[in-house]
Amino acid sequence: MRNFAEEIEQRKQTGLYRTRRLVSGPQQPELTVNGKPMLSFCSNDYLGLANHPGNLDALRNALPETGLGGAASHLICGHHTAHHQLEERLAAFTRRSSALFFSTGYMANMGVISALAARGDTIFSDRLNHASIIDGCILSRATIRRYPHNDVAALETMLANTSGHKLVVTDGVFSMDGDMAPLKELARVCKHYDALLVVDDAHGIGVLGPEGRGSIAECGLSEDDVPVLIGTLGKAVGTSGAFVAGPEVLMDYLVQKARTYIYTTAMPPAIAIATCASIDLIERDNARRDHLGSLISEFRVRATAMGYTLMDSRTPIQPIMVGDNWAAMALSQALEEQGLLVTAIRPPTVPVGEARLRVTFSATHSFEDLERLLAALNSCRHLLDNTDLAV
Ligand SMILES: *Cc1c(COP(=O)(O)O)cnc(C)c1O
Q1: pLDDT tens-place string over residues 3-15
Q2: In DSSP terms, which residues pair with 229 in a beta bridge?
Q3: Range of lowest pLDDT (91-100, 310-319, 345-354)
Q4: NCBIfam families from the entry (predicted)?
Q5: What would the CATH number be for the domain defined by 7-40+286-387?
Q6: pTM of the model as a whole
Q7: Less CB within 10 Å around the terminal CB: N or C of the chain?
Q8: Nearest alpha-carbon partner for 199 in 89, 274, 122, 124
Q9: C-alpha 126 – ligand 1 centre gap (Å)
Q10: What are phi and psi of 89, to 5 degrees?
């Protein structure tokens, strides 16, 4: 048998050991962590909708009508009117022909990719794609070719030299870097080489583009340019679950083939109703996105002036590059001592030597919250003085 305890010990010694913090109370910037009040800059609740009174009311009001449990899979007797209405709402919101509701983004990526590519096909995947995309690729048994991050020229060469069914998959916004995929160019080469383009917009939906319709909409692209859009509902939308949206024939195909859709219990239908309420809010509430944008630009100017190395991001994901695992942990620890929660992200989530602090902003952060973060960062700047920055 493998020595599991020894592997854990090794992780501890290399600064890679992971622990869980115990949070109580609702998700919001003011968190109670291990019983202590903390100001959090690490959630993906970008619009502050995870604890929005309107969404909570929608959930409470839905329960008498829907009950709690999903009770069966969608293809047995679990496909509730509430799920169906959410799918129609999501299709309308993303300006797509149809949509399919999954239980999580992880399951959506696993199910969609493994259904749309098979043994003998080739999947081209950005080197920095999310773990769930990587796992979906592996599950498909297709040939996997990873292309250098956002390198359309390299991808184009690979596509030109590959025959058969081709699928290109990318994050819309990269989860640990905050930068965006060059979707216009990707759409162009995919069309030219007859490759199916799949975009996982987990961090773009709700935040980017007109009415928060995401990175594809922000680039002015349509379903014709990017046939498959995957989005999660647990991040900016503030509820739970995920969706895929695109042409009807593809959604129909996924209902037949996506195993993570078929062989799992449907989400509690009340969640679907609360999610519809949240989408309504996202569509009409531009003020949240505007405030979030102001926090982001102010943070970038001030943190850069302090000598911190930020990444090429204009999204709510604003990592501070550190490099060394221990230095990233020390910085995170020092901030924690000042009551601020900013998590260190280490390998294998990011490449070796690229440990970082992943700062994320929410529309529910105030400018006073931002000032607290900046003051703390200013007082901790010396911790990185002797560190080799990776970028
Ligand atoms: C978070 C995330 C997922 C997984 O979504 P869940 O709904 O949390 O399972 C998928 N892709 C990307 C890029 C993500 O950041």
Answers
A1: 999 999 999 998 8
A2: 199, 245
A3: 345-354
A4: bioF (TIGR00858)
A5: 3.90.1150.10
A6: 0.96
A7: N
A8: 124
A9: 15
A10: -65, -40
